[in-house]
Amino acid sequence: MRANIAVASALLCAACYHGPSIYRFEPVQRPNGVDADLRLEKTRVRGELLEVQDTALIVLTDSARVVSVPLRVIQAGTFDKLGTLIIEGLELQSAVTKLRSFSRFPAGLTPALRTRLLAVYGQTEAQVVR
Fold it and tell me: Residue 102 is part of a domain; what is its CATH number?
């Protein structure tokens, strides 16, 4: 019995040591959100993931525009260092939950902060991409 506990403890310690570390995982080393590559039916949106909402992803595109991409129109969503988390037809809740932590604003944007962010990019509202 003691041998089993000792072996299990050693394996557990080894797994923790060799697992992912926040010190080596690039997306948590910077204040920006993870890079997103979203494929829609007729277009593609690439940029930084700013906010994850229940029904949409807010992205700062590579062309410096803040856009809102409804989750239901995303055919495939690939995220830097995380891989493809969104695939058309599959359940989205687990992907949304995971992505929220890797966005620039994981707690969401307050109305005042959203207004200030949009103003920086010369916008009054996020452009909806379909």
Answer: 2.30.30
